[in-house]
Each structure stands twice: as C-alpha cells, then as structure tokens.
Amino acid sequence: MTPRTRLGVLPGDWRLLSPAVGALALWMVLPLAMTLWFSFQRYNLLTPQLRGFAGAANYATLVSDPALWASIANTVVLVGSVLVISIIAGLLVAAIFDEPFSGRRMARLFVVAPFFVMPTVGALIWKNLLMHPVNGLFAAAARGLGMPAVDWFTDWPMASIVLIVAWQWTPFAFLIFLTAMQSIDPSVREAALLDGADWRDRFIHLVLPHLRRAIGIVAMVEAIFLLTVFAEILVTTGGGPGLATTNLAFFIYIKALLQYDVGIASAAGVIAILLANGIAFFFMRTVSRSIDV
Predict the structure, then answer these.
(1) Which entry of 68, 95, 288, 290 is 20 to 30 Å from 50 by CA?
(2) How far is CA 270 from CA 34, 223, 232, in A?
C-alpha cells in the first residue's frame, strides 16, 4: 500500500489541495490582516490628510467611548434573549410536532418558513404589517380589546428587535430539536409508556437529556450569527431611540459608513472578532463536554 502521512494525505495530494487551501487562507486571513492594520492607523475619510500610525490610540478612544459599552451591552441582551426564546419555543414546537397529527407535514412547512425569509423582508413585515402603531395588526387587535395601541419601536425598541429576530431563528432550533427527538429509539419510548410515564416525565427525563448536544449546537450556531444582526435594526429602529438598539455590528456600521472613521471602525471590528471567538470557544467546549459524557 502507498504510505500516507500522519494526516492521512498522500504525499502528492498537497499539490491538488493547495489551490483551494490557498484561496481559503486568502479569503480568511487577508481581510483579518487588513482589519488589524487599519485598526492601528489614523484613517478618517473626512480628513484624508491626517494619516499615519496611531498605535493604540484607536483602541483607547473606543474604550473611553460610552457608546461602545452600550452597544456591547445591547449585543449581550439581544443574543441572550433571542437564544432563550428561540430554544424554549423551538423545544415546545418540536415536542408538539414529534407527536403524529393530521396535516403535520403541511404545518411543518409553515413553521419553518420564517427561517427562509430575508432579514430585511421579515423586519419590514413586522414593522409595517404587525407593529405599526396605526395600521398594524397588533394595533387593530389592541383597539378591538379597548386598549391603546403600542408604538413598539418607540416604547419597546429592544423587545421589538428581540421578537423579530427570535421569530426568524426559532425555526432553526425547531428543525434541529425535531430531528434529534425523532432519533430517539422507539423501544425506549415504549418502555417509558409501559412504566406509566406521562408526557411531562417523558419530556423531562427522556427527551431533554437526549437533546443536550442539540441544544449546545443550536446555542453555538445561533450565538455566532446573532452577533452580526444588522438588517433588522437598520430597517426598523436605526439603532435608536438614542443607542437603545445599537448593537456592536450597528456601532461598527455607524463608525465606518456614517462617520467614515475607518481606523475606529476597524478597531471595533477587532473587538467584535475577539467577542465572537470567545463565545464560539465557550460553546465549543460546552458541546464537546456534552459529547464526551
């Protein structure tokens, strides 16, 4: 047999893999390297004559900016709230669809549909058709019950963003959880039924332990993507009122494309990369620990 390397690759295979690996490295490393370089530069497009090495001045400016800490706090609130809502709602809906009922396949399509709606379109639907204080469906329902209509994006801006984003990501959690539930051995379910376990006992002592890995995977994937929520904020609140809904991604957008400060925006991008990698590392350790059990 032809000898292989420790990685299981034939000695000549690197020549076939190198173009793809090189392109992938450039695609990942080059933008990161440029971001790091600009983060140490004094580079504002409104004052192009003021250029040069800034050292850690951009990071010092960011650390002393209250807007950065407000955006980080909003990011944590947004990510944490959407994770809790989508995981709990996904578990409940998956538990319902795990039981046979008439029209289950068609109903499953309607439950999954929000995940395939573009974020901008979904946000506009919620803003104009559901949450509009005059013409929205929620306002009409409130008036029908004799209650005043709620101006969601003024009175409850962060809750509105959380609701929109959770609506988009709950189908993802539902699909993962339903797949995991249907992988449970039917003989185990039958044994639980023969032992007299009701639906609550089966869910707590049988389904939830089986879903531990799936919950960790859903939390990790959603947390990474939720750090980049942008379109929903742009088309609904614009980061306001004030900084009430400005997350880290929108803060970088303000610095880069509204204030044209590439250096500050790049430094904020580096902070966002560190935050994303920290969260990913935490969830990867959690998932790997659950797999080892």
Answers:
(1) 68
(2) 11, 17, 23
